[in-house]
Design brief:
Radius of gyration: 14 Å
Number of strands: 11
Helix content: under 10%
Strand content: over 45%
Shape: elongated
Distance between the termini: 40 Å
Structural class: mainly beta
Amino acid sequence: QVQLVESGGGLVQAGGSLRLSCAASGSIFSIISMGWYRQAPGKQRELVAYITSNRRTNYADSVKGRFTISRDNGKNTVYLQMNSLKPEDTAVYYCNVVAKLTLSDFGRGYWGQGTQVTVSS
């Protein structure tokens, strides 16, 4: 199994910055991709950004130019640097990792417990 531990959420004023971290551990053979999703009250969970094993990245249009995703392969950790935060960024942010536990695995997704990000106006 894979365990994900998130950190870095909190309360910040509009225009401020936060950095989220998510560390993966367990019987991991390889990590295919690591990413962040968010869910605001009354809304569906949505993709924020992801990064693949060869560091290809993808961002939601709403965060392009403000958020940066990166990963440390040696530590199995993904980061989300969030700058110029807006009140509409307020949500619970979830880490998602697609990992293989063995060579023959196709890979499956694992979720973190979520971390609250609140941006005040």
